[in-house]
TrEMBL record:
Organism of this sequence: Tropicibacter oceani
TPR repeats, residue ranges: 38-71
Family matches, as Pfam families: TPR_19
Name this polypeptide is given: Tetratricopeptide repeat protein
Keyword tags: TPR repeat
Phosphoprotein among keywords: no
Top-rank lineage group of the source organism: Bacteria
Keyword Transferase: no
InterPro entries reported in the protein's UniProt record: TPR-like_helical_dom_sf, TPR_rpt
Amino acid sequence: MRHPIVVTLAVAGFAALSACEKGIDKDAVDREFQGVNVVDETNLNDVMLTVGDPNEAVAYFQRALSQDPGRIDLMRGLAISLVKAKRITEAKIAWAKVVDHESATNDDRVELADVLIRSNDWPAAEKVLDAIPPTHETFKRYRLEAMIADGNKEWKKADSFYEIAVGLTTTPANVLNNWGYSKLTRGDYAEAEAMFYDAIRRDRNLFTAKNNLILARGAQGNYTMPVIPMSQVERAELLHTLGLAAVKRGDVEIGKGLLREAIDTHPQHFDSAARSLKALESSVTN
């Protein structure tokens, strides 16, 4: 692995030596050295956004902005880091400042809409998206549009936006899961089930889709476990979900049996399933 600081010092030293030998004025050397610093700073910005601790990244970009206020790349870095650190209230303010910058882009406006949704400010998010030209067609824009249409119960629009979003990404599992959950809330259980299967096919580790699949099957009175990739712990948790779904439909005895199976399946003590079963048995006894 190369060490940027060592390389920077080496280049700076070489530049200084060249200046002594050739009689180059100091300002020329400073300009050359400044160019090296800019390259290193850009690399550091990227590192802080990808592998750094989110709160450390926030502190880094705050320091950088205090020295060079108004630089939109640093403003974006701060806003992104605040979202990653789950400091949503601060992130809203940061993204609003980015959007107010003269060099702001439509992608920045989409990010502002995203953080507004995260803060549950749906009307404001919808207003921001409505102001973006329809020619700006990106995956994230359509995913957010779909979520807002869902919230407004505009089902046809939601389906259209979800379909477009799926077509604009190579990793659609999460979108398919969201779309399936939308179908689930509408009572379209069979369609929801198919979408959850598709989401799991695209990402076998997406437990949320597995759990939602169980809910869709349970809502249809189908209490058999689906053939999907799952660990022993996941199987126990899914049996727990299925048991509760059965109880919700009034199939209490089936639900109790599924909860017992969940407890037996889990490699450790399954406290939540044990509590659910105890509550059911107590209510029956009473």
